[in-house]
Amino acid sequence: MKADIYSKPSDPIQEYEYPLERISKNWTLQIANYLTLASTNYINSLKSASDTLDHLPLPEVPDFLKNIPTNIKKVHDHDEDLIPNMGYVFASGAGSSIFMKKSGIIARVLVPTTAVLGTFYFLYPKTSGNIIKTMSDLYKK
């Protein structure tokens, strides 16, 4: 009997598994397993590193760093105005930096620094004296 389009097929269609598909499925599983193992090892190493870092003693903070707010209050002379004068100090630094834009590297560093320190010393003479005295006391210790 000849098969036509309306007749049922006599044999069910067999599905074949190609070896390349099996290899590719195994290969992706192997990569997934490897990545999972690698990430687990990496996370465990980070945990062990953080555990060892937690047990290290912290360095002792020097006294002059602990007392910075107190030292600033001691150094600043309250007879000198902060607000307008600090603007002048910043303006001198910015202006000298712009002025020295096309100069050499030494001039670009030294001139603005000198301008800021000179302006600060001129506008805050008592505070500058207190800073110099405090710095020399710290140096002597």
Q: Helical amount among residues, as a percent range?
A: over 70%
Shape descriptor reads: elongated
Low-confidence stretches: none
Number of helices, counting only DSSP H or I runs of 4 residues or more: 6
The span between the termini is: 114 Å
Report the β-strand fraction as a percent range: under 5%
Structural class: mainly alpha
Mean pLDDT: 78
Beta strands, count: 0
Q: Major beta sheet, specifics?
A: none
Radius of gyration: 38 Å
What is the helix/strand order? HHHHHH
Oligomer: single chain
- Give the total of domains: 2
Keywords:
single chain, 141 residues, mainly alpha, 2 domains, 6 helices, elongated
Explain what the structure shows:
- The N and C termini lie far apart (114 Å).
- The chain contains six helices and no strands.
- The protein has two domains: 16-56; 63-140, no CATH class.
- It has 141 residues and is mostly helical.
Brief sketch in words of this structure:
With about 140 residues, the protein is mainly alpha-helical.
Helix and strand topology:
Elements: H1 19-54, H2 63-66, H3 68-75, H4 83-99, H5 105-123, H6 125-140
Helix pairs in contact: 4-5, 5-6
